[in-house]
Amino acid sequence: SAVISQKPSRDICQRGTSLTIQCQVDSQVTMMFWYRQQPGQSLTLIATANQGSEATYESGFVIDKFPISRPNLTFSTLTVSNMSPEDSSIYLCSVDGTTGGETQYFGPGTRLLVL
Amino acid sequence: GESVGLHLPTLSVQEGDNSIINCAYSNSASDYFIWYKQESGKGPQFIIDIRSNMDKRQGQRVTVLLNKTVKHLSLQIAATQPGDSAVYFCAENVNSGGSNYKLTFGKGTLLTVNP
Fold this sequence. Notes:
The structure holds two protein chains of two kinds. Chain A has strands spanning 4-7, 10-13, 19-25, 31-37, 43-50, 56-57, 68-72, 75-80, 89-96, 104-106, 110-114.
């Protein structure tokens, strides 16, 4: 499976500011996904990011709050905008298998605390 | 450390015993299922998967059982070790055609292995 890295690994931010999280993969992948995992909770899909097209957002998530870039087949960013304490979560990126298909492999996550 | 386990169902077993983690899924159209293991401070790690045309699949020390009649999935871990302590998530995929894959995650179960 692909090796996935995320930056930053964790951060503490002030409310009203924005944070951009990077996801880098060591091989080209078709699909990249962004998830949120609130404390003690399961994973919730924010959006799917494909190169060359706008991200597809899930119900409850909007582009103004979570803008996403996907400039090439190995990289994506998620921005958490105008943050509030409710945005404190783990943000995870995942990718489909290098041969495509439904299996997803996850990065280590970015732990965000908003004060 | 992480507070991932505070709101999750828990399973406590003795080292060397077998563990069974259960998951109920809701969508009868789901055709692919994955079990993930998430250790504290890390992203979810792929364990094993199964397609809907199968009812059992075995890996190294792990077995996944699928009962489509009652929409139930289970993960069996043989000879559980302290390193198996983690939160375990099931995930289901509904293939809506083309390459539009999307995973929906269950609530998760915290497995604690006592020495």
